[in-house]
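Reviewers of the previous submission asked for a worked example of the structure-prediction workflow described in the proposal, so we include one complete record here. The input consisted solely of the amino acid sequence. No template or homolog information was supplied to the procedure at any stage.
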Amino acid sequence: MQINAPFIEEYVCFKDIIYSIYKNFILIFGCNKKIFFIDHDYSCLVSDHMRKEFFMGSFVNSLLLYRAFKGFFDSLPSIEEYTIVYPFENQPWEKGLLKAAREQTKKINLFAYQFFPLARNLALHSFSKYAKKTNMIPDKILTSDINTNNIFVEQGTETVLIGSGRFGNLVETSMRLKKRDKNKILCCLFLDPQEAFTLTYKAIEISRNLGCLLVINYHALLSKKIISEIKTIVEKYQHVSVVEAVASELLEDIFVVLYNSSSVCFEAALRGVPVLYVACENLLNLDRFNGLSKGIAHIKEGVFFIRSLIENEELYENYSYDIYTAAKNIILPLNFTRMREALQKPFLLINNGG
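From that input alone, the workflow returned the following structure tokens.
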């Protein structure tokens, strides 16, 4: 069973708004707390981040969502046991959901669905000792791919590998080898501004040196300000275009995909399109392929490898097949039987509207 409920409108009253504003100011006083990790003092970094979140209103929003979830759970009959499924990203709204559920006397099982592959260096799949001690973690995580499932298992998190609803249909189809436009490269930007600018610059130079067209595609949640600045940068390059579209619509005639932390690498690989990981200086390696695709650190390196793919048809086909096989060995099709066995009972699906 799926329930779509307008949480804010239905379950938040005026006193919840007052509560959230009051608690918001209480939280800001925690900015001066000393934070140490592996003998390094991160207090200033955490304090600066908390202040930014405070003035952006992130704390207030999370507190309001907590009160909304609390009101929703309070409204449920206490005689039943409930199972909640929600998309996992370890975001603040999820913390509000967890806190509201754990405060209930009625039994509420929380299952988080990890719906996209995570890079090993991405911190959001890690739970702190405090979170584990206070039970501010989901009861189980439903995982979509083997790599991320292993990461959760290594840290002692209980998982059920059910497969991918997003990429699963591609896994069940055979790879389509086809003649692609050797003159067209796709660059996929994710959410980090520094990554977006660095990847854009490298993609422009690589495509310019190759004499290829470059299509830049960005994540729907990338800052509008960043998008505007990138469009201004590419205005002077006739071979470059910035396109707002679903990646699957662009992959049909793309020869190769350049990416950094975008999950489009899996969709491209499963369609038989070669993907190249482009490193960005001063940023963590957030390659979701975890080193299975060809890595490019420098522009000359990218030019050399892509030119080899253009000139050598056999190399292109072999690399396409290797990447396709690697993706197929990581991503699994969605297994509804395993999902039903994990959940056991009818469930409520909750998301943040995204």
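The chain has two domains: 7-29+42-167+334-349, 184-330. We consider this example representative of the routine output the project will generate in years two and three.
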